[in-house]
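Example 3.2
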Amino acid sequence: MYVATDFGVYRSLDGGQTWATANTHLFDRELTSIAIDPVTPSTLYVTTVSRGVYKSTDGGDTWAHSSTGLPSGGASHIAVDPTAQSNVYVSAGNPTEVFQSSDGGATWSAAGLTPYGPIEAITVDTNGTVYVGAQYEYFLVKRARTGSSWSITASTNDADVHAILADPTNPSKLYVGTGSSGVLVSTNAGSSWTPLNSGLTELDILRLQLSPTGNTLYAGGAGGGVFDYEFS
């Protein structure tokens, strides 16, 4: 288990009972996000406030700067293609835009998307479709793995998107955590959205995660609470 913090990476080898730092050669330890290769979990990426992207291939024992082609400065969100792991996407620059790598972060190039507001979330589904959410834009922007143009989804109930989660067993099924409309779900790759807010007492959602079985959806709120939704 890994967490990215303002003081670097913390790693637990015992299911979260104890934690230790894992920051060797990580020269900017104020982190903004972390991504783990789903096939090779010893490969990790972190984004930093001032030095772009770092990558580890040994489970966090050591890190190497991995920002060739990115603008100078920080990066905010990163995602690995779950079925083509050499494809990685990151938001960076000012204004923020999406950059892509096809060689596991060794080099980066602009992906042709500069949203109106700061990017808040990036995810990739098992078909390789990239989804991006940004402040002040009440929809997702998406692009196929081999595509060159971006398109928008249906409106996310007039709320900006803070988190995006693609169901690993059904790429047409998406969940988003929004700033004012709670959790929304789509079963048609974003063509329409339905609220999924039963039992949710906070509507500003920052993080989403499915349990390993896929039976439980966890939502982290801006106020610090964590909610779970059990699928029947």
